[in-house]
Amino acid sequence: MVVASFAAAYLVGLASWFLPLGIQMVLFPWLVAVVLQMNAFWVGVATFALMAPSLLFLPLGGLVADRGNPRRLLVFYHLAYAVPPIALAAVIGAGGLGYAVLLLYAIAAGAISAFATPTRDALLPTVATGSLPRAVALATALQFVGQLAGIALAWSADAVGAVPLLLAQAVLVLAGIAAVLRVPDPPPHPPRTQRGFWHEIADGVGEAGRSPAIWPVLLLSFGVGVFYVGPFMAILPLAIRDHYGGGSAELSWINLAFWTGTILASMAFAALFKGATRRGRMVAIAVTLGAIVLVCMSTLPPLWLFVALCFVWGLGAGVTMTQSHAVVQIEAPATHRARLMALFQLGLSGGGPIGAVLTGTIASIWGLQAALLVPAIAMAGLIGFTILRSSVWTMRTVEAPPA
Description:
mainly alpha, 16 helices, globular
């Protein structure tokens, strides 16, 4: 790490964002599925509203970060991200909670997060040297630790209600501004002519397509978004409510299990696999594990086994997130890094709302088991295509030595 205090400031700012996100991950589906008792289709639509802004704003957020000052932008995004939970808390306190209100909250929170994500990723190389993959693994692990802590806080939703948790979200994200202000500005890019928005976005997509290491990772990330993130966000809350008869506590169990597995995998790669180079192969194996887990979940086993499967799924997710993230960070040129990281996040976050609507619709027509089995089969097909048509299984990703 360059300067320990700079790295620590980056990580504290990271945690201050993802801890509130962890609260939201339990609180939002709880409000939709448990408090308002919406059916499978409308739960899918609400999940789409939370994640759909990524489709529109992640590429724009990456372009803005590549052109501007990521540190100053991130401070602004922290300020903006506190507004939706405060507004929703005020509405609930006044007795005005309704489905339309939650949709507005979802769109606002999702849009701000879409701008912040590539901006934060663009700052990471500024505070890390030596082993960028190790820095990625540490940042990913802390991101998930923050989410896990937020999930644990949201466990109390049935008892304390939504308003205290929403206010806690706002306070935490505002507290992170002090940490972000301590992060140094990244070095300026070489001067170049700025072109139109769509030309710049196309340039970023073209850069990804020209890289034999990046495009298969981006394709698999999109598959993860559609076939894994979508069902996780839309179908698992319905399974807890309709099949297991649970509430916020049971939602917290599956989230805690999943993110604990993700954290353990991320920390293992940070500590034990510093010299790994077959990152594409590890990603392919990890996403295959996810398909196997979904097939097992489609049998709707006892709750304890369902939770255990979420833990195993989380282990695979930790490998996928750290290694695919590292591939893009290593292979992306500095002038395109934020845009390429935006494309990476677009696959995960932007594919999620598509998967949420598709699986929510499948669940409403054919039931929960089909909504878990169909994505597993589709993802298996995408994995096979990617292995056959790219070098993801054989490629080596090695970080260039520092100049």
